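Record 1 of the preview.
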Amino acid sequence: MKLYIKEAEFSWEAKFIVADEKGKGKYKVEGEVFTVGNMLHIHDRSGAEVAYIEQKMLSYTPKFYVYVRGERIAEIEREFEFLNSKYNIIGKGWIVEGDVPAHDYTIVENGNVIGGVHKVSLSWGETIELDIYDVYDEVSLLAVVLGMDAVKNAADSSNTGI
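->
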């Protein structure tokens, strides 16, 4: 199964649709800035909130919590390593392999690839394709991928040099 996220300049005020393989809107994502820390809300077709991503405040490096159906499932952080950065998904046991800033990476659980992220060109422009191998965890993967993008963009806009 694949989901498509229209690539745009990241903004906390962003509102965009995540489409399925047929181009139909499956999730709506809305940013919120006038809160203590930034938040992204993910709603299904019926309008119900299925997940949200919340910035952890007072942290040296950008960190975000990921909640699915009200339960915190992960914390995402970016660590500086010599010549690159490493993204950690704490709480899920998932490992990120590849180039997160270039949107070309996989997410691995217990040695098995459970999802992949790639840039693709479609008729509506540059898009991020999320390839999901376990439909059961679709919302978690989508929320974590959006959370990783939030961490990346928060780090890029900070003065930490990370």
